[in-house]
């Protein structure tokens, strides 16, 4: 179907939160108000914890008020010291969580296909001060968890995964939260599953549960004992109630995003110099968190930034995600591992990747089709 290409009346953003029906939310809030239990891991929190564990197909889950604090708690719970090898192609929270634990992030380059941390480069970056590897499952595409674990076992390192983009991602049917020592999920409003703000850690070692609960509750063991310097990172009852309702919507939202994906893909596949950032591994079921493309300026004749700005003319706000690299931030650029020569693949990707709007409601009023046609026009005609 040929559509006229016109400017959207209202701004179209990369993200749109999945929100529950207000009447259902009112019923949940009525339960909470009647119970007078609004915080401190009450019944809504406990039920969400149980259902998240089941949905993600993991052994243990601990909920947090946001994903950044969850990542911070992971490093603390695993008693990490010294240096942690991670990726510069990620959101700021990844390295920041390390610095707040007095750890030094060591940036490792990424692989050019799915843009996750490159295991072939990890081993050369290990020093006597290295205590862990922190990988990031980018756009729902998983890291090479097998090779990373082999390296970790060889050097006795811990493995933490930032799975902010990977809620529901599986490998051969195994939930992504089963790999490594700990996996963090973000429940921010921009994510496929959200509690407006929130996060979780998943892990196999059940003995970590008590420690994590202490960390996120000021280190308080009971009324008379505070046994460690913790912080406040508890998911409250209202957030948990939102999560319980949104969780029921996730599978339907994923189905809709698959259709949006196919609409975009049909156009992208016909554009020279434009490709989808997607794993080629058939064993992987993606979360469908983002729709990311790479724009090769030499082949298509347009730079990523040109396309990014052209979209604004149509009231469509794409995102250069991740740009700039974390290694380019003022607080990290002086690290030896931040040198441009150390990160050629990540540096190139940061100049080429663009995320398009990606959520189920784009199926309404031919929204996804219109955006795909705008992309084609911008690339072909400028």
Automatic annotation (TrEMBL):
Superkingdom of origin: Bacteria
The processes (GO biological process) annotated in the record are: polysaccharide biosynthetic process
User: Mind giving the lineage of the organism this protein is from?
Assistant: Bacteria, Bacillati, Bacillota, Bacilli, Bacillales
What InterPro entries does its record include?
Answer: DegT/StrS_aminotransferase (IPR000653), PyrdxlP-dep_Trfase (IPR015424), PyrdxlP-dep_Trfase_major (IPR015421)
From the UniProt record, which GO molecular function terms apply? pyridoxal phosphate binding; transaminase activity
Mark the residues carrying the PTM N6-(pyridoxal phosphate)lysine: 191
* Active site residues of this protein: 191 (proton acceptor)
Family designation: Belongs to the DegT/DnrJ/EryC1 family.
Please indicate if the UniProt record lists Cell division as a keyword: no
Pfam family of the protein (one): DegT_DnrJ_EryC1
Keyword set, alphabetical order: Aminotransferase, Pyridoxal phosphate, Transferase
Protein name (database record): DegT/DnrJ/EryC1/StrS family aminotransferase
């Amino acid at each position: 179907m040929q559509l006229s290409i016109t400017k959207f009346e209202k701004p179209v953003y990369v993200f749109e939160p999945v929100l529950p029906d207000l009447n259902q939310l009112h019923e949940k809030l009525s339960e909470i108000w009647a119970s007078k239990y609004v915080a401190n891991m009450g019944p809504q929190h406990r039920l969400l914890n149980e259902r998240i564990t089941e949905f993600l197909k993991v052994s243990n889950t601990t909920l947090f008020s946001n994903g950044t604090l969850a990542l911070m708690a992971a490093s603390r719970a695993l008693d990490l010291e010294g240096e942690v090898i991670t990726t510069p192609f990620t959101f700021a929270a990844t390295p920041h969580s390390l610095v707040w634990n007095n750890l030094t992030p060591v940036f490792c380059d990424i692989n050019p296909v799915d843009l996750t941390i490159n295991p072939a480069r990890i081993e050369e970056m290990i020093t006597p001060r290295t205590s862990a590897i922190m990988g990031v499952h980018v756009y729902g595409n998983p890291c090479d968890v097998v090779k990373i674990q082999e390296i970790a076992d060889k050097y006795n390192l811990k493995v933490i995964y930032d799975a902010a983009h990977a809620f529901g991602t599986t490998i051969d049917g195994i939930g992504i939260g089963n790999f490594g020592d700990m996996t963090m999920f973000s429940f921010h409003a921009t994510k496929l599953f959200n509690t407006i703000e929130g996060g979780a850690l998943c892990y196999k070692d059940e003995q970590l549960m008590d420690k994590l609960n202490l960390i996120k509750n000021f280190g308080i063991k009971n009324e008379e004992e505070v046994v460690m310097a913790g912080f406040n990172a508890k998911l409250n009852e209202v957030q948990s109630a939102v999560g319980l309702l949104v969780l029921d919507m996730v599978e339907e939202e994923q189905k809709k995003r698959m259709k949006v994906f196919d609409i975009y893909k049909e156009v992208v596949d016909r554009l020279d110099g434009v490709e989808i950032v997607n794993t080629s591994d058939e064993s992987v079921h993606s979360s469908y968190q983002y729709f990311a493309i790479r724009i090769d300026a030499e082949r298509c004749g347009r730079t990523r930034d040109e396309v990014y700005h052209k979209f604004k003319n149509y009231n469509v706000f794409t995102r250069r995600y991740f740009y700039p690299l974390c290694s380019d931030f003022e607080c990290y650029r002086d690290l030896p591992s931040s040198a441009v020569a150390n990160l050629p693949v990540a540096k190139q990707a940061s100049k080429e990747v663009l995320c398009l709007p990606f959520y189920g409601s784009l199926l309404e009023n031919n929204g996804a089709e219109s955006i795909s046609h705008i992309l084609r026009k911008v690339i072909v005609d400028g």
